[in-house]
Design brief:
47% helix, three-stranded antiparallel β-sheet, LytR-like, elongated, eight-stranded mixed β-sheet, LytTR family transcriptional regulator, 2 domains, transmembrane helix, phosphorelay response regulator activity
């Protein structure tokens, strides 16, 4: 029998990237075909109809540039998402700036592709009244921008729901105190003697030992020492445990501060590893390395963190 924690997300993950690419290609192809047919029907009613190849060039060039911009929009959505809750005005302002850049790149890309198509046909493409034309294009592009970004956001939330989210177990309830220490009788001291009281050492930072993981309607516990490696994913940290992926709402820097530094070491701007789970270190050109983990995965190690990795392995 398979792992009972295996869910739909883990079955979908191996084919996720090819399906995402295929989805956007099919979507933009269908939209381009539909828009071309509608535009051809529209120009036939005008006093000066345009050749079909021109109409097709207009629509195909627009949708091709949109397709190429989808990865950039996904990166923008992922980067700006953490601002939505704490800095709404900054969130909207940055999206406004991003939509303007998106429109400028879209229009410039369309112009380039159309110019090449017209040149191949022995004609010249003129982008007349470019300032007024761009204003018209921006009104359309801002709606396209919002639609694509919203679709990416909704898809990401759906995946988070399938993937499951982890959280640190709740701290003990307030009012629950540790038992008082048993007093030890002190030896008699000479009169006038004032014993020195050593400064109390600072309490060690609280480190979570277990995490509660929710996947759909199931809940189970994982131990911190079972984490193989960690990866920053926007405003989440991905916990990779025995071939399973869980998300914890935190930054990688903040979460590492809660883990045992003798066990977990940062090896990349967006990755950290459990030293006990490293199987092999493969040096790469330029001082970087590739870490082969016991779970069969690989983790990048940048040159900047090689010394910290050596120190951590030496201490372990």
């Amino acid at each position: 029998m398979g792992d009972p924690r295996k869910n739909l997300y883990e079955r979908y993950a191996p084919i996720r990237r090819p399906l995402e690419v295929a989805f956007w290609i099919v979507l933009m192809t269908l939209q381009a075909a539909f828009s071309t047919v509608v535009a051809i029907m529209d120009v036939r009613t005008r006093a000066v109809p345009r050749p079909n190849w021109e109409v097709a060039t207009w629509e195909v060039s627009s949708h091709l540039v949109l397709l190429l911009l989808v990865p950039a929009l996904a990166a923008v959505e992922r980067r700006l998402s953490p601002l939505a809750r704490a800095h709404l005005l900054r969130f909207l302002a940055w999206h406004l700036v991003a939509s303007v850049v998106f429109s400028v790149v879209h229009v410039a890309g369309m112009f380039g592709l159309r110019s090449m198509a017209y040149a191949m046909a022995g004609e010249r493409y003129d982008f007349w009244n470019w300032a007024g034309q761009w204003s018209y294009e921006y009104l359309k592009d801002v709606r396209v921008y919002a639609s694509i970004v919203f679709g990416i956001w909704a898809y990401r939330l759906f995946l988070l729901r399938l993937q499951g989210e982890a959280r640190v177990l709740d701290a003990p309830e307030e009012g629950v105190t540790a038992p008082a220490p048993v007093p030890i009788p002190a030896l008699a001291e000479p009169e006038g003697f004032e014993p020195s009281v050593p400064d109390a050492p600072p309490p060690p930072p609280a480190r979570p030992e277990r995490f509660l993981v929710r996947k759909l309607r199931r809940e189970f516990l994982i131990a911190a020492t079972d984490i193989d490696w960690l990866q920053a994913e926007g405003n989440y940290v991905g916990l990779h445990v025995n071939g399973h992926d869980y998300l914890l709402r935190s930054t990688l820097t903040d979460f590492l501060a809660q883990l045992d530094p003798a066990l977990f070491v940062r090896v990349h701007r967006s990755h950290a590893v459990n030293l006990g789970r490293i199987k092999e270190i493969e040096p790469l050109d330029g001082g970087d390395a590739r870490l082969h983990m016991h779970d069969g995965t690989t983790v990048p190690c940048s040159r900047r963190y090689r010394d910290a990795l050596r120190t951590g392995i030496g201490a372990a």
